[in-house]
Amino acid sequence: MKELWSPQRRQAQALANNSFELLYGGAAGGGKSDFLLVDFVSMCNDWRQAWKGILFRRTYPELESIINRAKQLYIPLGAIWKQAERTFYFPTGSILQFRFLERDDDVTRYQGQEYTWIGFDELGNYPTDYCWRYMISRARSAAGAPCYIRGTANPGGPGHMWIKKRFIDGMEPGKIYKTKDGLTRSFVKALIQDNKKLMDNDPNYLKRLEMLPSHLRRALLEGDWDVFAGQVFDEFRREKHVVKPFALPSGEWKRFYSLDWGFAKPFSLGKWAVNEEGRMVRYGEWYGCDKNEANTGIRMGASEAAAKAWGDAIAEGVTECIADGAMWNKDDDGPSVAEKWEAAGFKMIRAQKERVNGLMQFHQQMITTGEDGRPMLLIFDHCVDFIRTIPALTPDPNNPEDINTKLEDHIYDESRYAIMSDFAKFPGRALRKQNGSWNFGAKRSADYNPLADRY
Known about the structure:
Layout: H1 9-15, E1 21-26, H2 32-41, H3 44-47, E2 52-57, H4 60-74, E3 80-82, E4 87-89, E5 95-100, E6 117-120, H5 130-136, E7 148-153, H6 160-168, E8 177-178, E9 184-190, H7 196-201, H8 204-210, H9 214-220, H10 238-241, E10 242-243, E11 254-260, E12 267-274, E13 280-288, H11 302-316, E14 320-323, H12 337-344, E15 347-350, H13 355-367, E16 377-380, H14 384-389, E17 395-396, E18 399-403, H15 410-419, E19 431-434, E20 437-440
Parallel strand pairs: 1-7, 1-9, 2-5, 2-6, 6-7, 10-16, 11-14, 13-16, 14-15
Antiparallel strand pairs: 3-4, 4-5, 8-9, 11-12, 12-13, 17-18, 19-20
Helix pairs in contact: 2-4, 11-12, 13-15
């Protein structure tokens, strides 16, 4: 086998990964199809007749290309290809079927089937996770063989968002995570630079990728899952804006909360710190969203939510909360939502709500860099819902200067309130603590750098 094929570095990492669910890829030219084909055959000798696999593509013409590559790898191993069955039969007794799923409902043809290995090549062509989740139920072995499901994908395509949510958001590449149902899941990121054979055989391929439009270049060359055509915050870069948590000394940072309230829809509580340079850090969040239903609130009462938030605020030295002005509205003679939060202990401050200006300031905070060269907006890496929802926002189809409010925009609104607040000022109007109070417009010393050596 070594004479016939040898793995590139990332392929070897993926082949050694024993998680139940594995996504491999992230950029064009990462050797995705070869990984799938070799991953299946690597277990044939161990489990022989008990090793049965199936490999999917979206359409039959797409299936042809990977079948041709499989013939190059498998036939020298003694495998027999039966065209009518679209199946390879191996000398060990193992079999691998090649099938296409043009519609989600086609996957029900495999009800009652049993597979130890399931593969999806170019998973991004599937607009929903239905086929993937359905085939998980077909992964089983009466002989006790291990079962795996493998997918390959690049950023973009109809399935971009569900793949990103399942494998990218909140997950470190190469690390194996245990899911709530006790199974394991992992993502191995591969770039064209990891495929030395392709780089040697076609050196101009990299140059062709570099000529693509910005969003396609970031997706296919850099393997960036936070980008797609038409997104509002195309300046967002996970590697720049998302950081590991660092200390926020009280003498150097002012802390406050921001809130976009929701009951049937999610509420979003953002935890913010700002320094005298005007840099903002989102150091925590509480997103009241149903984990099983997108954009659906947890229906928690205002008093209960306020009491829980105040417990954190006391420990963090926070008293102020910037909030949507609608929280002061009343439907009856009882207290408003804002009054309930005030009763818990918060000093509630009405947010500035100019939407167009707020979007401009959000952009400005994200693209401006400080004296240390880092963005003026930093997000701690455990704020996974900010990282998930902000890059996914698109413009209002009737007003390109605003966000499409039909999307999951609650964290955006809450963050906009924070960025437009009097606590958050841009360089030139920096925030400085003097005589125990926070003032604006104070001159900072030339050598002041509170983030030095903290990353």
